Amino acid sequence: MADIHYIIKPRAAQKIYSFYRNVAKKYRHTYDKDELKRNVHDAVFSIYGIESTLLRREPTLSRWKGYHMANTDKWYFVYTFDGETVTVVDACHAQNMHA
């Protein structure tokens, strides 16, 4: 199997960062910057399982029709796949998965 290349679009990266930035704001006395960095890193790193360990699914949100979707326990990613390149175009935390 050929190596898969990953492109993470700014929208997807921003969704991950802004989710954890909002967590940090809400829980500022108990959630520190190290946790924020670790959570962002873990979420972004999980993208590299798309098309290898994360299964391809049909999108559950109408705005994601026409794309592929993969999910971890915390994140849903929508992407395109051309055989060698996964392009992640959007991300949504599981708590925010609603139409």
- Tell me the structural class: alpha+beta
Principal-axes geometry comes out as: globular
- Give the radius of gyration: 14 Å
Round the mean pLDDT to the nearest integer and report it: 93
Distance between the termini: 36 Å
Largest sheet: 4 strands, mixed
Number of strands: 4
Number of continuous helical runs: 2
Could you state the oligomeric state of the chains shown? single chain
Spatial strand order of the main sheet: 1-4-3-2
Q: Classify the helix fraction into a percent range.
A: 25-40%
What series of H and E elements makes up the topology? EHHEEE
- The low-confidence runs, each spanning 5 or more residues with pLDDT under 50, are none
The amount of beta strand, in percent, is: 15-25%
Task: Give a quick set of tags describing it.
99 residues, alpha+beta, 31% helix, globular
Give the secondary structure arrangement, pairings included:
Elements: E1 5-8, H1 10-26, H2 33-46, E2 68-71, E3 75-81, E4 85-93
Parallel strand pairs: 1-4
Antiparallel strand pairs: 2-3, 3-4
Describe the structure.
- The protein is an alpha+beta fold and 99 residues long.
- The protein is built from two helices and four strands; from the N terminus they run βααβββ.
- The longest helix is centred in the first third of the chain and has 17 residues, at 10-26.
